Amino acid sequence: MSQEEGTNIAAAIRQIPCGLFVLTCAHEGLRSGVLARWVQPCSEQPPLVMVAIGAGLPVEPLIRDSRAFALCQISAGDLLLQKLFSTPPERGEDPFVTLPAHSAPSGSPIIDRALCYLDCRVVRHVDLDTDYRLYVGEISDGGMIHGEKEPAIEVGGNGRFER
């Protein structure tokens, strides 16, 4: 593939709208979260969602060990959550210490200011030998929290954040 073709493909991919979510996880007293821009439903029966997150992030061992994660949808204009989770916390650092949250049935944190949440049990992990890994979760619980607000949608992003 030529460089021009690669540039055209990247530009086309960036036109796919992406919602902003915080993927959260907890295991044995440790909690973490990361901004997830690539989230997509992939089945109705059973209800499944897939999420792509950067390979090697500190949240990955928590997902692996707990076999669960939650997705908290960010509302438009919620710059606090976007800023807080755009840079993944260091291993062992708890971003929820000062952020009001409660626990989902899986133990993953649910951010109280989120629009809605999905609590998921990991049913598949796909390592594609790329800079991202895919996690497929079966939705076991979920609900609206502040559903009257508009969701944060991004077009033109590439799913990346600064590490």
Approximately what portion of the residues adopt beta-strand conformation?
35-45%
So what's the overall shape? globular
The total domain count is 1
What composes the largest sheet?
Answer: 7 strands, antiparallel
Tell me what the CATH architecture is: Roll
Distance between the termini: 28 Å
Question: How much helical structure, as a percent, in the residues?
Answer: 10-25%
CATH topology title: Pnp Oxidase, Chain A
Please compute the radius of gyration using only Cα atoms.
15 Å
Number of strands: 11
- Flag low-confidence runs: 158-163
Structural class by helix and strand composition: alpha+beta
Spatial order of strands in the largest sheet:
3-2-6-9-10-5-4
Q: Can you identify the CATH class?
A: Mainly Beta
Estimate the mean pLDDT confidence. Answer: 89
Order of helices and strands: HEEEEEHEHEEEEE
> Number of helix segments?
3
Could you name the CATH homologous superfamily? Answer: Electron Transport, Fmn-binding Protein, Chain A
